[in-house]
Design goal:
This protein has 14 helices and eight strands. It has 460 residues and is of the alpha+beta class.
């Protein structure tokens, strides 16, 4: 038995197709009916009813496509598989197209890479025309490629800077170092730090010209100085360069150091400046330790030095005797001066104490209202500026005065006395206490200690 829907063979007695689930039926079902009117049996041919699919029965919903009509013809295998075949062919075409495109791109990429490599080799050998042609071919194969455009720009830059650097040998020979340095600096600014295979040749040449410029500058400096320290610094610079040209310049500078130190040491030896002469020779030997001229000059200095040292010892013995005599005389003088100083200090101390006592006595007279005695302690210049009546009336409102502190220091020929005092004074508001600071110049006038001048300020 076969399924009328999908054509699959079914086991005997199956109710549903094991493949598509359609209910299995006979072509025609014979059913017996009883005719009640005639009282006899009739055999009626009944058409089969379309059967619901199992999925429709389970869901409870019926649609036009959920019923199976046994009269429909079974579809062929080609009809059932044509859509899948079309899809498979489409996928195959897409895969073949993508593969072919990738192969094309890989081939083009290999050609472009080879052209770029050829261009780099041409540029390294200085054949910029061939390098340019290779890059133009690469650009025609791959339009608007940023890397190729950059390489083309680098080739143009290489041609331009090469033209500029071609001027440098002539400028070096003419000692036009400033012009050469301008070109080297400009080229270094343009290509010095750029990483490109098309600029490597120019960068190497730039490095060589920079070294040559450094050597030329060193030669220029060496010609313009006789200072050994400056020349030694130039030696160090040439040692750092290390090229054959730099080594020759190093030798020339060493010879100049020997000449300069020999000339200077000879002059110092004639002037009997032996220590300076020895130091000068040693400085030259530091850079030319085997130089015969410097070694001979060093021997002359040692002989001269020994002769002078012997003479110096004799002179030192005579000087020592004279120095001892002088020392004894100075010791006696110092003792005398020390005694005089001690006497002066004692005199100053006495004068300071006397000055303090004079000021204290002045205020004692003020407190006892003896203004006449106080006025007499003032010097002549004070008397000229202030009469007695003005002086005494200045203390009309003063009832009492206390000296809180007093100090004295020497001041040229006089003594400066500083006091802080408190005064009890009468005002329109009653009796108040005020503090003052006064500074007096006290000294001898006609052999008598006087208060020569003074000034004060009210503190509170």
């Amino acid at each position: 038995m076969y399924c009328d829907k999908c054509g699959a063979e079914q086991p005997k007695g199956a109710a549903y197709c094991f493949s598509c689930g359609t209910r299995l039926n006979s072509d025609v079902e014979n059913k017996t009916t009883i005719n009640l009117n005639k009282g006899k049996k009739e055999q009626v041919k009944v058409e089969p009813t379309p059967t619901l699919l199992p999925s429709a029965v389970l869901s409870g919903q019926q649609g036009a496509n959920d019923r199976y009509n046994p009269s429909e013809a079974k579809p062929s295998f080609f009809a059932r598989s044509s859509s899948w075949l079309a899809f498979a062919v489409l996928v195959l075409l897409i895969v073949v197209g993508v593969y072919g495109w990738n192969q094309y791109q890989a081939h083009m990429g290999s050609r472009v890479a080879k052209l770029q490599a050829d261009a780099a080799n041409f540029a390294t050998n200085g054949d910029y025309s061939s390098a340019m042609k290779s890059l133009e071919q690469a650009s025609s194969l791959r339009k608007n490629d940023v890397a190729i455009d950059t390489d083309l720009q680098d080739i143009q830059t290489a041609q331009r800077v090469q033209s500029e650097m071609d001027q440098l040998p002539t400028l070096f020979d003419a000692q036009k170092l400033d012009e050469a340095e301008q070109i080297v600096t400009a080229v270094d600014t343009e290509i010095g730090k750029r990483s490109s295979p098309f600029l490597q040749r120019e960068q190497a040449e730039l490095t060589r010209h920079q070294t040559n410029l450094r050597i030329a500058r060193t030669q220029e400096k060496a010609k313009g100085t006789d200072n050994v320290n400056d020349l030694a610094a130039l030696l160090t610079e040439m040692e750092q360069v290390g090229t054959t040209e730099a080594k020759q310049v190093h030798t020339d500078i060493t010879k100049k150091i020997v000449a300069v130190t020999s000339q200077l040491a000879t002059k110092l030896l004639d002037e009997q400046s032996l220590l300076a002469a020895v130091q000068t020779v040693e400085q030259g030997l530091k850079y030319a330790p085997a130089d015969s001229e410097l070694l001979a000059l060093n021997g002359q200095i040692e002989s001269k030095k020994e002769e002078i040292e012997n003479r110096k010892k004799e002179e030192e013995a005579k000087a020592a005797l004279a120095a001892e005599e002088k020392r004894l005389a100075q010791a006696a003088e110092e003792e005398r001066l020390a005694q005089a100083q001690a006497d002066f200090v004692l005199q100053q101390i006495d004068q300071q104490e006397e000055a303090k006592s004079t000021v204290q006595l002045f205020y004692a007279y003020i407190n006892s209202y003896d203004y006449n005695q106080a006025y007499n302690l003032l010097g002549g210049s004070w008397h000229k500026g202030t009469g007695y009546s003005d002086f005494s009336s200045g203390y009309d409102n003063t009832y009492d005065v206390w000296i809180d502190s007093i100090d004295a220091v020497p001041n040229e020929q006089n003594t400066e006395v500083t006091i802080f005092l408190t005064a009890q004074e009468s005002t329109e508001y009653g009796m108040v206490y005020s503090t003052y600071r006064s500074v007096y110049q006290v000294g001898y006038e006609n052999g008598v200690m006087k208060i020569l001048s003074g000034k004060g300020e009210k503190l509170s």
